[in-house]
UniProtKB/TrEMBL annotation:
Keyword Transmembrane helix appears in the UniProt entry: yes
Keywords: Cell membrane, Membrane, Transmembrane, Transmembrane helix
Topological type in the membrane: Multi-pass membrane protein
Native source organism of the sequence: Pseudonocardia xishanensis
UniProt subcellular location: Cell membrane
The name this protein goes by in its record: ABC transporter permease
Pfam families, per the entry: BPD_transp_2
Entry's transmembrane regions: 6-27, 34-54, 60-82, 89-111, 131-159, 191-210, 216-234, 241-259, 265-287
Amino acid sequence: MTLLTQILVSGIGFALPLLVAAVGELVSERAGALNLSLEGMMLSGAFCAVLGSVTTGSPWLGAVAGVLGGLLLGAAQALLSVRALADQIVVGIAANALALAASTFGARLVFTGGTEVPAFDRLPIPVLHDIPVLGPAVFSQTALGWICVLVVVVTAVLLGPRTGRGLRIDATGEDAVAADRTGLPVRRLRALCILLTSAMAGLAGAQLALSEVRAFSDNMTAGIGYLAVVAVIAGRWRAPGTALAAVLFGLAQALQYALPALGVAVPPALLTMIPYAIAVVAVSGLAGSSRAPSCLTVPFARA
């Protein structure tokens, strides 16, 4: 396997969970709900996925546990930010801190150095896998990885801005008061979008833990959730742009390991900074202007 292929394999490995979480967050933000807790949802999903896989011996049940782990935090986010009208940013930061502390403590209680994690094996597509450079990176995913791709496509198609559901979501995010006056259940829509986001974030955490890392470690998401939020902004709140940004950020993370392999002498701190530096450029306006949904982060309550 060439070095370029290795970079692409690593980049796609980082990009896929980021993509799943970002597309879920895209739906929620279009409805006016910002989930800074995405990082915590992914971390909870990763922890619950490994715990479920180790406990039952089945990576499939582990993946289900990962989705439920993300949903648990999403339910709390929906309750606080939609029903209780709490500040979405504060709730998100608090949820991330809680998820980090709880998963770290739980991992030290449950997992030991010799814990074997049942994980997913690669399922390369015949012929396509043999395509030079791109084949091993794109067409050799695990079963859970292919499910992640399917979930992203189905979500983008069914909830796109040209569909009836998508139009209702966009109306809620652009003018919640006007949407409520037309009879749309604004708070229910926002809560459902947050739950969808959390389920996809839990799936993303499970993909990271059971398909890529095949283990759980403290703070293993390491900012991927925040990058997923940035990918939505960089993608101008549309699925194609969000997907492109997610892949770009995944490849940027892969460079952290590729540059030392190439013999490039770069300080480790600078390597860690690469994806976040690209993220800053992406949202600074240098990559093109964008406009967020008008009611993003604005709580809704009937007068």
